[in-house]
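Lecture 7 notes. Example A: sequence first, then its structure tokens.
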Amino acid sequence: MMWWTSSFPIDRWWRKKHEVAFGSKEHFSSSRIDMTLEYVEDKIFEEISKKSEEESKDGFTEEEDNLLNKVTNTESFWKKGVERKEVKLTEEEFDKLDLSQFDDIKDGSGEEV
């Protein structure tokens, strides 16, 4: 039994998931191909769920957060002695803002982000 379990770990995973005893009729009638497909499907679903959890924190994936931090590295900007001011805009004023100047933002290496 130990040789089987170490040789076919997906079989062990499947038996544990479905609470099927080793050597039972249900175990012998199962297909290793079906077990493998089910295992792969579970791993893919796990990965998708993990990404969804990351996104649900603040609506951004970790990759998007890194990109935003690169583009909006305000800490270094404010260290240059620029006075920080809070500007409050009405919704109408905000809608009128022209943000096209930020379309071609480049990081410190000159590459577009």
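Example B, a different protein, same format:
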Amino acid sequence: MKGERPDATRGGGGGSDDGGKPEGTTLEAALEVFEVFASGSLTDEVYVLDDVSGKRIAIAPRELKERYRAAIGQARSRCDR
């Protein structure tokens, strides 16, 4: 994943163009990591670190993390209806 463009994860929009991830998938689930940390200085790369205190984490652009958070909120609000 290191150096992969954020749009390659499709921003959590769901549907057929997101690599098979169902709508409402968290960024953590999409990247298969324990936690994703947002970075204001990254713009087009996601870094995955395999062993940070025994856990796999990611550092992603803030915009990507916020886009996933918004998509999750929208999916949850549709489920509540």
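Note on Example B: Helices lie at 27-31, 62-79. The first helix runs from residue 27 to 31.
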